[in-house]
Amino acid sequence: MQIIVFTIILSAVFNGCNAIWCYQCTTATPGCGQPFNWRGVGYLGSPCLDNEDVCVKLIERKGAKEVITRDCLSNFKAFRTDIPADTYEGCRVAAKDVNLANFVNNTIKELDIKRDWYDETIWCFCFLDHRCNSGSVNSNSILFLALISTISMARNILF
Questions:
Q1: What are phi and psi of 153, to 5 degrees?
Q2: What's the pLDDT score for residue 68?
Q3: How far apart are CA 73 and CA 144, in angstroms?
Q4: Are residues 32 and 41 in contact, defined by beta-carbon separation less than 8 angstroms?
Q5: At what angle do helices 2-13 and 139-158 cross, to 10 degrees?
Q6: Which range is the signal sequence, renumbered to this chain (predicted)?
Q7: Where on the phi/psi map is residue 33: left (φ > 0), alpha (ψ -120 to 50), or beta?
Q8: Helix, strand, coil % (nearest 5) of the chain?
Q9: Whole-number Å distance between alpha carbons of 4 and 49
Q10: Angstrom distance (rounded) from CA 72 to CA 22
Q11: Smallest Cα–Cα separation from 146: which of 39, 18, 16, 12?
């Protein structure tokens, strides 16, 4: 009976371990610009919250100035309205939101409420690259581990 309970608990613990790991940094972080140097970032990334998440590299250019932001797509969805509809692997130009700040009367030009400060905004999506890999748990390995531990516990009880 203990073996069955142990196996059920083990399979329940490892059931929902799907995550994708992405770097989370900006150009102000050493190593986060071009060329990318993960040693300069100082850590190996963090897991994204959404199971269907992808890693994003957002490139915003104004003249010769380039700002790069790396993060999970779910972190951008809360405040960005220019995310392209196609989030499959590759780079795309930002979507135009014609309704953004349509009913706002603001004369402070430093507040980029219409998101037209940058000349070019490019979204790069990845989930097949380095640190863009899915962290899904291999269920065969867990089942094999549970089977081996069950057999060894049964062998200790019977013999």
A1: -70, -40
A2: 92
A3: 34
A4: yes
A5: 160
A6: 1-19
A7: beta
A8: 25, 20, 55
A9: 32
A10: 6
A11: 12
Structure tokens, 44:
């190996």
77: Cα within 13 Å, side-chain hemisphere: 12
pLDDT in tens, 142-158: 555 566 667 767 777 76
Three-class SS of residue 150? Answer: helix
- In this prediction the pTM is 0.64
- Name the strands in the sheet holding 65-72, side by side, starting at the edge strand that comes first in the sequence: 25-26, 65-72, 55-62, 120-126, 90-93
> Per-domain residue ranges for the chain?
19-138
DSSP 156: H
* Cβ neighbour number for residue 87 with a 10 Å cutoff: 16
On the question of pLDDT at 86 being above 60, the answer is yes
Evaluate if residue 47 carries a pLDDT over 70: yes
